Amino acid sequence: MKKVYVKTYGCQMNVYDSERIMESLDKQGFTETKNSDESDIIIFNTCHIREKAAEKLYSDIGRLKNQSSTKKVIVAGCVAQAEDSEIIRRMPEVDMVIGPQTYHKLPDFVSRLDKKKKFIETDFPAENKFNLLTKRKRLDKKPTAYLTIQEGCDKFCTFCVVPYTRGAEYSRTTAELLEEAKSLVDQGVVELTLLGQNVNAYHGESMTGGTSNLADLIYELSKIVGIKRLRYTTNHPNDVNNELIHAHRDIEKLMPYIHLPIQSGSNKILKAMNRKHTVEKYIEIIDKIRLAKKGIAISSDFIVGFPGESDKDFEYTIDLIKQIGFAQAFSFNYSPRPGTPSADYDTQIPKSLKDERLHRLQQLLKEQQFQFNSHFIGKSVQILVEKTGKEECHLVGRTPHLQSAFFKDIKKISKIGEFVDIKIDSVKVNNLSGELIESS
Ligand code: SAH
Ligand code: SF4
Ligand code: F3S
Questions:
Q1: For 380-436, which CATH superfamily applies?
Q2: How does pLDDT run across 52-69, given as a tens digit for each residue?
Q3: Cα 77 to middle of ligand 3, angstroms
């Protein structure tokens, strides 16, 4: 039996895709290994969002090929879509290049790898790959799962490769999503995170033949008894509607956390980025969300050093962060991506200045994250136990606000997949810890 090792880079949608790929290969008689050394086939499920991510792929393939020349190498994901046959030109040891829209073809290609020399498949086919992939049969027993509900993007922010690598915006139907969600629940899942490059642009066919938005879908999914927690990511400010905000107020299973990327606190830069929203609009949305759901965790993405970003523009971003107060956020140096409009702007910022700004911004975000976590000291929070921690008696899970939290369970009362209450006694930037509250 051939063994397959999958290495996943990039966003959660790639994690979801890797699971679906492995599930369909498993059905064809391949087995997954977590040890790349013992694999016959290695799949790199790649990310093209920033230069570093793409370059890492080439160094990883090089390292692997130094170890073994017999392994078959497959490059999937967004680098495959963006660089196509160029990958094989640069690295002739690669046997297959396959883009994200054609994973349903992978099992057939893999079974013919020994006979055929190379496979390159980067079309955007008319048929829906989700309907052509095998039914869900999870290979792990995790209590949490991702569910891709929407793919692609039509927004064309000037820095971003996603519209090119993932194609046009597409939403799956409510019926197929309910079916997949139920099947996941039957396999032990209690927490579901809905995914999309613009998840809140979701507009899939409803059960009655009309159109569902994200709030409608969340409402439908919340009726599935086995689902205890719902999350969704990642959002665009322009697609936040009142129904989604009210869903946070009305649907108890919807967790108090929203990831809403703004990228910059300067309207001039937002315009150059083609974000189509202003700082004021963003603040207005956050105010509404906070009014609807007190204490909700607000998260965001920031790009530092976009072409033309002056000291003043950067200060606006710092001011915005201070004004909002984030529970958590991701931040990156601007990375010019080939084929995107802003890569050609002649106002590029030197790396040293980007580094300096990023460092300052990240310090502030870390302080805010610590502050957010500090509010939980002395409080009892419910966590879903996901795994064991560094020490054997430590169990780790997530709070409703998506913080990582751990506790000692010396008596081994709790199990993975269970909800427990813990009393928080200490917090760090990246986690909370506390004591198990034993139910009487
Ligand atoms: N759809 C989401 C973002 C998806 S990409 C949105 O509209 O916000 C995830 C994040 O990667 C982005 O939010 C952005 O912060 C970052 N990113 C995308 N392209 C980038 C680039 N060229 N350089 C640096 N960061 C980038
Ligand atoms: Fe990229 Fe998000 Fe902009 Fe789409 S909306 S182009 S995914 S940053
Ligand atoms: Fe990367 Fe593609 Fe996701 S570029 S962030 S893996 S959509």
A1: Nucleic acid-binding proteins (2.40.50.140)
A2: 887 888 889 888 877 777
A3: 8
Q: Could you please state the CATH topology (level 3) that the domain comprising 3-121 is classified under.
A: Rossmann fold (3.40.50)
Give pLDDT, residue 129. 87
Are 359 and 388 contacting, i.e. CB atoms less than 8 angstroms apart?
no
Strand 211-212 and strand 204-205: the pairing is antiparallel
440 pLDDT higher than 60? no
pTM score of the predicted model: 0.97
Binned at pLDDT 50, 70 and 90, residue 248 comes out as very high
The three-class DSSP label of residue 253 is coil
Is residue 260 within 6 Å of ligand 1 at its C-beta?
Answer: no
For the chain, the distance separating the N- and C-terminal CA atoms, rounded to the nearest angstrom, is 49
Topology of the domain covering 129-374: pyruvate-formate lyase- activating enzyme (3.80.30)
Choose the residue to mutate in 21, 50, 78, 198 for probing ligand 3, maximizing ligand atoms within 8 Å of C-beta: 78
Please, are residues 327 and 299 in contact by the beta-carbon 8 Å criterion? yes
Give the model confidence (pLDDT) of 109-146 as tens digits.
Answer: 999 988 878 999 999 887 788 888 889 999 988 999 99
- Of the listed ligands, the closest to the CA of 154 is 2
Region 229-235: mean pLDDT is 98
Domain spans, the chain: 3-121, 129-374, 380-436
SS3 content of the chain, % helix, strand, coil (to 5): 40, 25, 40
In the block, which residue shows the tokens 């086939």? 41
Do the domains 380-436 and 129-374 match in fold?
Answer: no
Helix axes 242-250 and 279-292, enclosed angle (nearest 10): 30
| Interval between CA 270 and ligand 1 midpoint (Å) | 13
* Cα 191 from chain centroid (whole Å): 15
pLDDT at 1: 79
